[in-house]
Amino acid sequence: MINFIKGVQFTISMNKHYFVAHGVDVDGIASHAMGSIKLKPEHIFVDHPTVLAELKKLEQKPKGDIIVADMSFSGKEPIYEVLQRLAKKHNLQAIYDHHQWDKNDPSLSLFKTYRLEQNMCGAEIVRAEFRLRDDVTKELAVLAHVSDFQIKDASEYQTAVNLNKTILLSNNGKGPSLDRIVSTLAQGGLRQLEIDELAGQYDLETQVAKRNLDQSLIERDVEGRLVYFGFSHPILYMKEASFHLLREYPEADMVVTIFTKPPVKGSLITYIPERNMGQIDIPGYCLANKGGGRQDGGGFLVKPAELKNREALADKLSKGLKAYIK
Q1: pTM, entire model
Q2: Phi and psi torsions of 67, nearest 5°
Q3: Which residues are CB-contacts of 11 (< 8 A; sequence separation ≥ 6)?
Q4: Same domain? 176 vs 276
Q5: I need a surface site. Which of 85, 204, 268, 271 has the fewest CB within 10 A?
Q6: Same domain? 171 vs 60
Q7: How many whole angstroms separate alpha carbon 35 and alpha carbon 96?
Q8: Which of 131-150 are b and which e, b meaning 16 or more Cβ less than 10 Å from the residue's Cβ?
């Protein structure tokens, strides 16, 4: 179990702050909201396919403190090179994450402090490091944890699900902006987002997307394991699409969801049911393919041109996975 802690807890400086965190799920947005409460920063919403480009943009911004949450850079040499340049202009203040990292990863040495724990979600780590004790951030941390670890029997689960749907709707340009969501959550206005209504709108959008995903399935045998490859519209995004496939096709040992349109073009997610936990080196495979993740799932990149021939892409990915099956 990863549990790396370095440096001291975060202290506020008078510099401008840039808060870089996932902008596609409850954990990332909750982390942003906590950053808003503590720092009033400029929010940089990122995803694994976009993080490199967004970090490069920071090179052109005024000098400030950069805080990263809910994002792994482990093993990503291009990102390390950008971070090296950023460290010369900005102050790489802290990184708080829960994905799998190499303890000796050079990216960590560029930050003044870091805390990496896989048994906590990103928002919980941020709350602890920022010494936030209020009820608003407590509620956000619970929602993030329930969402990230899929604790379906928790009383907060449906609220977490609906909030995540609201975030996904925003990412597809059909809901409130991410800045508005963060601001509202930071002010304790979870219910002001009208997430039940927005979740209903999301459900209507996704019904069609799920039917198309089901119709796109390609089946492959990978070292004796049944793997389904599905091609999805980004309205479903990573976890939602993969969980749908696992619910509908429980016979699968593994599902791979490939997203075919912006903003996640060329990215995919893998997920393994508990019966196969640890038998496939998901983090290793993802890191080798310009991505990252944890033992139960992760994301990595494919070339957009490869989407033109889905059968050939499924063959290529199947061949690549063989080396990571124990």
Answers
A1: 0.78
A2: -120, 130
A3: none
A4: no
A5: 204
A6: yes
A7: 12
A8: ebeeebbebbbbbbbbbbee
User: If 0-12 CB within 10 Å is exposed, 13-18 middle and 19+ buried, where does residue 14 land?
Assistant: exposed
Residues 29 and 114 in one domain: yes
Strand 64-69 versus strand 91-97 pairing type:
parallel
Looking at the fold, whether 303 and 179 belong to one and the same domain comes out as no
Residues 259, 156: one domain? no
**Lookup: tokens for 122:** 């990103």
Distance CA 258, CA 268 (A): 4
- Dig out the tokens for 171 from the structure: 């990412």
CATH number, position 300: 3.10.310.40
Q: Residue 128 burial by CB count (10 A; 0-12/13-18/19+): exposed, middle or buried?
A: middle
What does the pLDDT read at residue 294? 72
Residues 6+ apart with CB under 8 A from 312: 306
Tens digit of each residue's pLDDT (9 = 90 or more) over 52-87: 999 999 999 999 999 999 999 887 788 999 999 999
Residue 206 lies in a domain: no
Neighbouring CB atoms inside 10 A of 169's CB total 21
State how far the Cα of 323 lies from the Cα of 326, in Å rounded to an integer.
8
Strand order in the sheet with 64-69: 3-6, 113-117, 91-97, 64-69, 16-22, 42-46
Q: Which domain holds residue 32?
A: 3-200
Between CA 127 and CA 9 the distance in angstroms is: 11
